[in-house]
């Protein structure tokens, strides 16, 4: 599932960075959070697939890295989107 999770995670960060520079900030921020959610859910489907195959040892080996990766991705996405909104609102006030 890395082939799904990684591109959507990077797209989430890219859209958040573009939100500070382009018009339609709300659309870009919403798209960023949507891509972040798709990336996180794809990791859950990967764990589900491993459970159906009976690969419980593989789940035990990788679950900590998956949790860490999803948390980092979500925190960075939230921070980037927050910064984009702050930058946009400060430009509007000027």
Number of helices: 3
Tell me, briefly, the overall form.
elongated
Q: Low-confidence segments, ≥5 residues, pLDDT <50?
A: none
Radius of gyration: 16 Å
Tally of extended strands?
0
Strand content: under 5%
Model description:
This protein is mainly alpha-helical. 90% of the residues lie in helices and 0% in strands. The protein is built from three helices and no strands. Helix 1 runs antiparallel to helix 2 and helix 2 packs antiparallel against helix 3. The longest helix is centred in the C-terminal third of the chain and has 38 residues. The protein starts with a helix and ends with a helix. The model has no long low-confidence stretch (mean pLDDT 93).
Q: In a few lines, what is going on in this structure?
A:
This protein has 94 residues and is mainly α. The chain has helices at residues 2-19, 25-53, 56-93.
Mind sketching the topology for me?
Elements: H1 2-19, H2 25-53, H3 56-93
